[in-house]
Predict the 3D structure of the following.
Amino acid sequence: MNVNMRPWTPDIDLPDHERIARAAAFCEHIATRHSCRRFSSRPVPRALIETAIAAAGSAPSGANRQPWHFAVLSSPGAKTALRVAVEEEERHFYGGIGGSEWQGLLQELGAKAEKPYLEIAPWIIVAFGQTRASDTDRFPNPHVTESVGIACGLLLTTLHQASLATLVHTATPARFLNRLCRRPEHEKPIMLIVVGHPAPDATVPAAALDRKPLDQIASWL
Ligand SMILES: Cc1cc2nc3c(=O)[nH]c(=O)nc-3n(C[C@H](O)[C@H](O)[C@H](O)COP(=O)(O)O)c2cc1C
């Protein structure tokens, strides 16, 4: 074997029926994930967030540049500043720029301009994509958004596995997030992930239960 290579691990040879059963069990569990927009202030141990970020860090990435940084907010001051800035941006959107069709659709899905959960939930993770290794590096990292998107998917999956509630949220206003999270210019905020326990009165909008069937999302050639 080439000295730069290592044996493939883990090498568990399962019968196909066992593989299918494992995949189906996972699929059934992950299909119960839904966005939560009412959180309780019940604390979540930092160790859980650390583990979810470690899982995210195992994601594949373009040229293995691992172009992600996760800024984790828990202090009341940071969360309040975030809420104020995000709500201001959203009022702009809901006030007209987003268009009335979009507003209707988003409201049906439970999204509102007021975001109390940004202060109530114990943790807010801001996922940044590193467009290059440093501010002075000439070479751009390849496929940053794709890589960060996959990493965030693993993060959400790990948190769901731990029976925590999450909400993916758009990362605007972008410049403000760099300032708030003290991140350099060559990093761009990609998404916010709100993490916590659901409030006792949390709900899932019926529209969110509507998922496209397999024959609409896959074709076989
Ligand atoms: C990139 C991205 C951005 C999102 N932004 C918001 C947002 O700003 N506000 C919000 O309430 N939900 C947001 N969502 C959540 C979606 O509305 C939600 O995932 C979708 O309606 C499906 O519902 P489910 O997550 O419960 O399955 C976002 C989701 C993604 C993937």
Remarks:
- The chain is about 40% helix and 15% strand.
- Residues 34-35, 37, 109-111, 168-170, 191, 204, 208 surround flavin mononucleotide (CB under 6 Å).
- The beta strands are 68-73, 123-130, 165-170, 187-196.
